[in-house]
User: Fold these one by one.
Assistant:
Number 1:
Amino acid sequence: MIRVQRLRITEGDRQLVDLSFSIEHSLALVGQSGSGKSLTLKALLGMLPGNLRSELEIEAPFDLIRGETLSFVPQNPFTALSPMTKIRKQWFASQKRARELFDLLGLEWSLFDCYPPQLSGGQLQRIIFAIALSSDPKLILLDEPTTALDPKLREEMARILVELQERFAFGMLFVTHDINLAAKICREMLVIREGKAVESGPSASVLRHPKSDYTRRLVEASFANREFRT
């Protein structure tokens, strides 16, 4: 289990995020745009902009090292890789490992010699997952990785994520504004607003019996296939 005992992000005297949470299996961090979701990921990755300050206390059974124990899947698969470089030149694990993961994810091996713009959104997202898995990470952070996909591909990626986690047993922090999708992927859920926790618990329980009006509106917006904004 990974315990983020305290995460506090400030900009000058203004507090942007103040959270604590645990990741035992899979945790969805849910909230509208501007709620502090992406800032939380950037703080865990050590990628906060210079004008922000963070206080981070983590208890984990391993060191969080990006590219080794920690992997990151960004929001937009179309901007995640260099468009002018073939996939094989952006792959840093062995070719044997690439073949294993391509087979697992249902990717044709010929795609390894393609440029990213030659791939569909679904193919490219699978390759991003393969790259994230190539180091056998213990924790994967995902920043709304299905936002750029159409609804059918979004459902497919959700299924793939669940299957990958069952196979490789990595911990997962999944950031999204789509509370319905989050419940399909993650066992636990933390709903945040303006950088603070609103409610948390098993995903199915939060989805079916939201305690706060804010969470209820997120649920309604999710089932209406639109993002809730205040």
Number 2:
Amino acid sequence: MVLKKEGIHRNPKTILRIMKKYGLLAEIRRRRKWQQMGQQVHKYENLLNRKFCADRPNSKWVTDISYIHTKQGVLYLSIIRDLYDNSIVAYKTGTEQTANLVLDTIHLAMHREKKRVAGKLQLHSDQGFQYTSQAYFNLTKSYDITPSMSRRANPYDNAMAENFFSILKTECIYRHKPASFCEANEMIDRYIYFYNHERIQLKTGETPLARRLST
């Protein structure tokens, strides 16, 4: 699709043959092992119900936290992804997996998108302790955000958040294996910029922000 946009038309079999000639391999994403932890204070209905499409920006967001392993230790990455165009609206990293990491991500997303947030914004998460906390309840209420939550032991209810982590790790983290928190942060910054601005999606034929800016 990138070649096509450049005016270069080639049969997929030709591309595959050239890749084979030069030893170029496509990355295969790994399956993730699921686990649940922490005490639950607030639980929410699964309003998203695996309806991973949105007809306008900032009406359906998904969020989650993942682990980035470095030689210095584990870096935690919190993201918010918009289901309208699959763009990463906001992200934060931290060396501790806390509720504040999630809250800071929401603050950043609302600061960036506050003028364009839909009347009813739905934010979907899993049942991690950060999302069931009193602080999360208070913050979503203050921003008039409607929380939605995956059912217990149903990880695919939040598949779109996990899908991004899989893409990031397969195409970036696993290839370069960051040695430090600083290096991991730089890699994440570069990749998310690339993902939002340059990486073409097969379903839409365009980059996430290209679709967002055209609305």
